[in-house]
Amino acid sequence: MNKLNCSDLDSVRDITDQCDYDDSVTGDSKDYVSCCQDNGYNELENKLKKYQSIYKNISVAKLLKVMCECCNEIEHSKRTHNKYDECIEKKN
């Protein structure tokens, strides 16, 4: 996957529109964060809601930038929910 552009992000779609991915396996132990999925289920949208409730003093724009950066830093096959959440925590 090419690196995502993480500047000037206003919504999760600004991330997901840069790539395409259809996650055919969900909810099992091998489930990874899909940064490019936006086909009825948008994993990053759910993550953003979670992070907004945790990091109440951080703007949506900053959260989106950090989320995008973590998508770039962790390759998909290693981007477990725990690793992704840890990356977000380290950057906030």
Structure summarized in a few sentences:
This protein is mainly α and 92 residues long. It is 45% helix and 0% strand.
Number of helices: 4
Secondary-structure-based class equals mainly alpha
- The rounded distance between the terminal residues' Cα atoms is 25 Å
Helix content: 40-55%
How big a fraction of the residues is strand?
Answer: under 5%
Low-confidence stretches: none
Integer average pLDDT: 89
Question: Could you say which overall geometry the principal axes of the C-alpha atoms support?
Answer: globular
Spatial extent as radius of gyration: 12 Å
Main sheet specs: none
Give me the strand/helix succession.
HHHH
Strand runs, count: 0
Question: How would you describe this structure to a colleague?
Answer:
The chain is mostly helical and 92 residues long. It has a domain at 30-91. 45% of the residues lie in helices and 0% in strands. Helix 2 crosses helix 3 (60-73) and helix 3 (60-73) packs across helix 4 (81-91).
Sequence-ordered SSE layout with sheet pairings:
Layout (H helix, E strand, L loop, with lengths): L12 H4 L26 H12 L5 H14 L7 H11 L1
Helix pairs in contact: 2-3, 3-4
Name the descriptors:
single chain; 92 residues; mainly alpha; 45% helix; globular
